[in-house]
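Task card 7
Instruction: Convert sequence to structure tokens.
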Amino acid sequence: MVLGKSGQAARATRLVTVIGVSMSLADTADAHARPTWLALDKLGVLIAIVAAVGVVLPFALFRANRIVPGETIMLPAALPLPLVFLLAAVLLAGFVAALLRWPAWLKLATGFVVLATLFVLVGLAASYLTPEGETFARVSPGAGFWVLAFAFALLVTDALTRLRLRPQYRVAILVAVILAMALLLWSGLWNDLSMLKEYASRAQAFWSEAQTHLLLAFGSVATAALVGVPLGMVCYKVRRLRAGVLNVLNIVQTIPSIALFGLLIAPLAWVAANVPGAKAIGISGIGAAPALLALFAYSLLPIVSNTVVGLLGVSPAAIDAARGMGMTRWQRLLAVELPLAFPVILTGIRIVLVQNIGLTTIAALIGGGGFGVFVFQGIGQTAMDLVLLGAVPTVALAFAAAVLLDALVDMTARGARP
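Output:
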């Protein structure tokens, strides 16, 4: 009797085991049968959440004039009904592309379509909301537009990262985006946006300040590269100088930008007043001279340190081969070590250029000019669209410079590989 019960228990245990194994195999088969593109993308879920927040925020902001508080306009009221349905359909496709594990190229294409639709329709929304013949009214993109643009720009960036495109393809995409934005501006679709109305009344000043901004940012980086790379080479060769030079440059880097601009006013004013010819070449206590000098000082640390790190990272085998060929110490440095270290040096220059494009905005506080003129004028006048007129080109310029120099770093790194 006991044996019979034990046998029944054993048979029941085996039956449960068989059923469990069968269910596990069925689940595994279902998992293998399910297409990969139906699985959720973890980053895509975050992007979709951010985009969903953007949908419920105001799409546009209407002001009776440029400085009064605005009236928020939600998406259904910001556009004619057919365009609302069009944008809803495009956003739905964007949500699906973000949530699911679609191929990266399909995510990239969908992200660009959503961004293009957003940028076109925000201009049409400005024309739709501006009363006929009203010259003082202002329509700005609302928080919802900016959040949606950020979410799908993140989708595009993630897709580009996954695709791992060659540098020349990344540059080609950047050029295509610039041409598309230029076409959008040329078409007049954005003419009723408040930022473009601010530009229309300041077009000549805008291009003058743009030239100043470029001269300060690129001029300071070029000067710092001419000084910093040789200084880094000397620090690499003379170890006793290395710690001292890098510590001094570290101290300069810790000084706040506004404080450094202010500290340079008094000594440069003295130079302009007491050194013959100094004032004639543009040196003064305020203006471009202290701005250029401060930006130059901020640029030295990344360039010098990256030069030292790049040279220290050169393969000893390459140095030994050059030594075996009979090269002198400085010949090895210039002909072998420096070319191999160039990608790292260029990375330092990239960091400095993006940094200085942003820091040049602060130069407007001491009369240095640049896009910061519009930023601080807008803050003083409580005109946020004027602030955007200075801030948006600065961000776009820094982004374009980062993409171009990243591509250049990749190309030089490929060329430096043995």
